[in-house]
Structure formats: structure tokens, C-alpha cells
């Protein structure tokens, strides 16, 4: 229920995501989402600028940033917007990948665990690993 008066959005964030097509509410939630992305970009810049061993904190990190909903207005949880940032784990980054309908998000998490040296057979509703994400 956080509000964002600093960017002229006095309304609580969550209700705005249930905009029902109202253009004013969509504009406000877009402002909030833009602020969140700017804050995230600043966080990534700080990681990149922080020395850590033979590189930076970003070089030794895997950050997953996204949402549990693709459309907050309808509470849909397919086609989730997710970004993977960092170099830890040797992922093939820098591309936009669309997975087949019905691919569980837990497949990504299972793949992340593998890359961090944690061998797990399954997580939740996972059906396998995302091999093409890690083929280098």
C-alpha cells in the first residue's frame, strides 16, 4: 500500500495495478514501475562499481528481477517479465527469450541452483532445466 508522492503518485501502488483500463491509473502505475526500474539500474551500477576479488560484485552475482504477475489487473501469472543480471554462474545473458507456454518459472530457479553448485532434482512444479540458457 506504499504511495509515491515523490513522483506525484499519491495513490497506493497495489490498487493502481488493478486499473481496469483506466488511463490515469495506468499512467500512475507506469510512473511507479519506471521508478522501480531506475532504482534497480542504480543498484546494478553500484554492484558493477564495487570491487570484489578478481572482479566486481556484479561479476560474482546472479540477480533475478521480475514479478510474480504478468498482468496485475487480471492477476495472471503466465509470461512473467523476468530479467537475469550479473555474471555469476556463466549464464548466456544479453538476449530476450520467450519460453513455450506452460514452462514453469521453477525451471529457471532449478537452473540457477545448478549454476551455483546446488544439485536439486526438482523444485515445486519444475519439469526440468533450461539448457539453452546455460549452453556457452
Tell me the fraction of residues in β-strands, as a range. Answer: 5-15%
Poorly predicted runs of 5 or more residues: none
**Strand pairing plus helix content: what structural class?**
alpha+beta
Helix content: 25-40%
Largest sheet, in brief, is: 2 strands, antiparallel
Shape: flat
**Ends: how far apart?**
42 Å
**Could you tell me the number of beta strands?**
4
**Estimated radius of gyration:** 18 Å
Largest beta sheet: strand ordering: 1-2
SSE order: HHEEEEHH
Overall average pLDDT? 88
Counting DSSP H or I runs of 4 or more residues, the number of helices is 4
Please give a quick description of this structure:
The protein has 136 residues and is of the alpha+beta class.
List keywords for this structure.
two-stranded antiparallel sheet, 4 helices, flat, two-stranded antiparallel ribbon, single chain, 136 residues, alpha+beta
How are the SSEs placed, and which strands pair?
Blueprint: H1 13-17, H2 23-49, E1 51-52, E2 55-56, E3 63-66, E4 82-85, H3 105-115, H4 131-134
Explain what the structure shows:
The protein is of the alpha+beta class. Helices cover 35% and strands 9% of the residues. The chain contains 4 helices and 4 strands; from the N terminus they run ααββββαα. The strands form 2 sheets. The protein has a two-stranded antiparallel sheet. A two-stranded antiparallel sheet has the order 3-4. A hairpin with a 2-residue loop joins strand 1 (51-52) and strand 2. The longest helix has 27 residues, at 23-49. The chain is flat and about 45 Å long.
Amino acid at each position: 500500500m506504499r504511495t509515491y508522492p515523490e513522483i506525484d503518485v499519491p495513490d497506493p501502488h497495489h490498487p493502481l495495478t488493478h486499473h481496469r483500463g483506466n488511463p490515469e491509473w495506468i499512467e500512475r502505475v507506469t510512473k511507479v514501475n519506471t521508478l522501480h526500474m531506475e532504482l534497480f539500474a542504480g543498484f546494478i551500477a553500484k554492484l558493477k562499481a564495487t570491487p570484489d576479488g578478481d572482479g566486481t560484485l556484479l561479476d560474482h552475482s546472479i540477480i533475478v528481477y521480475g514479478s510474480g504477475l504478468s498482468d496485475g489487473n487480471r492477476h495472471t501469472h503466465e509470461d512473467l517479465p523476468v530479467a537475469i543480471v550479473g555474471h555469476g554462474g556463466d549464464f548466456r545473458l544479453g538476449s530476450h527469450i520467450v519460453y513455450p507456454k506452460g514452462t514453469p518459472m521453477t525451471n529457471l530457479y532449478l537452473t540457477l541452483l545448478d549454476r551455483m553448485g546446488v544439485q536439486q532434482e526438482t523444485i515445486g512444479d519444475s519439469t526440468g532445466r533450461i539448457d539453452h540458457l546455460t549452453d556457452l
